[in-house]
Structures are given as structure tokens and as C-alpha cells.
Model the fold of this input.
Amino acid sequence: MITNSDSPLRVLLLGGTSEAASLAHRLANDRSVAATLSLAGRTANPAASPLPVRVGGFGGADGLSAYLTREDIDLLIDATHPFAANISRNAIAAAAAARIPLLAVERPPWTPVNGDDWTEYDSIEAAIAGLPSTPQNVFSGLGRQAIPALSGAPQHRYVIRVVDASEPPANLSHATIIAARGPFRVEDDIALFTRHGIRHVLAKNAGGNATYSKIEAARQLGIKVHMVRRPAIGSRPTVTSVEEALAWIETHRHRRSARGV
Ligand code: NAP
Done:
């Protein structure tokens, strides 16, 4: 007879990052875990997942909590992007309401090193306002959602890198939009910045290796970086690596077996 302690742990993995993708690959091979990957549905062609995928918002913290209860989820893992603050705050509230453990997987932020020329800001709007008022050649690594904010400073010549191709707004018709998915290479970003005469880089402090090339390229070329700090999320158990997340799941599996439930 199969008891609950023999049945797989049901895990909901909130994704949209390389960490979530790699955790999904590791969990797909673990028969003691039944995991589902949840995506917001923002990117047109998300990478194929080895786990069952559900797409789209839950309808706030209440909707997420209802989903956790309805689907009998045992563990919630938030491996969303450090700038995806809404879903992460909802995850804290929903896990508490559904009385299940939550773990965040969050890569450490970048820190400036010798040779970097950074100014840090608390918001995308503040970083854009930190650009000189006179027209500049600016690279934006702030993502598609920041494009409306860029149009508030239309005097600059922007090179905007986004995942999915999109048209610039009317008042940024001279902007160059580059649709590309990381990881990017330092030598390519040096060539890009040189070709466009970039003097300022706008960036979010995403951390990780995939998009660090722009920071390293800026350092090597003596370009100023306007860095947006991460939003505050609230307190939750957090690890920085996929290995630690797997160990956390294992701990909960053992606890459940020990309880025989
Ligand atoms: P957000 O502002 O925190 O989320 C907005 C809403 O989108 C959430 O309230 C939720 O809707 C829904 N949502 C977000 N992530 C979800 C997920 N994994 N599964 C189901 N619903 C989700 O997030 P965002 O900044 O728009 O980012 C959206 C997604 O893109 C995230 O999953 C994130 O990991 C990924 N991403 C974001 C960035 C970035 O810079 N922000 C960069 C790379 C990847 P409901 O309230 O209706 O549940």
C-alpha cells in the first residue's frame, strides 16, 4: 500500500530565471518529487522545460494561496528574478496562508570592483534621471518594462537590449532595439558599446553571470554605469544556489518520512 510518505513531494517552482530552469532539470529526474514550473508568460518563446509547466498569474497572493491548497502543494520555491518583487511578496503571503514552507533561490547581487564607475539608484526612474541632461549615447539593459520610462528622457540615443523584439515608442523612434537572450560575451558587448559610442550603461543589479558582460565591458571601456538596486522583498528563507535548494527539499522529504505522513 502506498502511504503519503511514499508519495512524491508536491513542489511549485516559481520560475523565469536560469536558476529555475536548472532546478527544473534536476527535479525532473527525481521520482520523490512531483514539481510544476510556473511562468508568468512574459516571453514569447520560453525555453523548453522538462517539468509540467503552468503559465500566467494566479490573481495575487490570495489566488496563489488558493492554488497551493487546491493542488495540495507541499513546498513552494520562489526562483523568480530578483526584480520580480510582486510575485515574491505574494509568495511570502501565500505560503503563510497555505501553511507550507517557502524557499527563495536568489543569486547574490553584483558588487563594484576596482575600475568600476557606478552610481546606484533605488528605482529605474531615478537611474534614468541620473543621466546627464544633454544628449548621450546610452545602453539600456533595464529590460522591456523600462522602455516607457526611457521615453521620459527622449533626448538620448538609446541602444536597448530586450529578450523579445518590440518597436520603440514614437518619441524614441531613433532608438536601436536589440532582441537577444543571454548569456552574453564581454568581447561582444565591448564591440557593441564601441560601435555605438556608448558613454552610459543603465543596468539592474540582477547578479549572476549571464548578463554581467555589460558591466565588465563598461569597466574595460571606462563607461559610467547607472545601477538600479534590488527592490526590498521582505524576510524569507533564502539560498543562493540550486544545490542548496535541492538540499532543502531533501530535508523536507526526510522530515515527512520521519513523521510517516
Ligand atoms: P512581478 O512584477 O513580480 O510579477 C507581476 C505579476 O506577474 C505577479 O503578481 C504575478 O501575477 C505574475 N507572475 C510573475 N511571475 C510569475 C510566475 N513565475 N508564475 C506565475 N505568475 C507570475 O514580475 P515581473 O518583473 O513582471 O517578472 C515576470 C517574470 O519574468 C517573473 O517570473 C520573473 O522571474 C521573470 N523575469 C523578470 C525579470 C525582471 O527584470 N523583472 C527579468 C528576467 C526574468 P498574479 O499576481 O496574478 O499572480
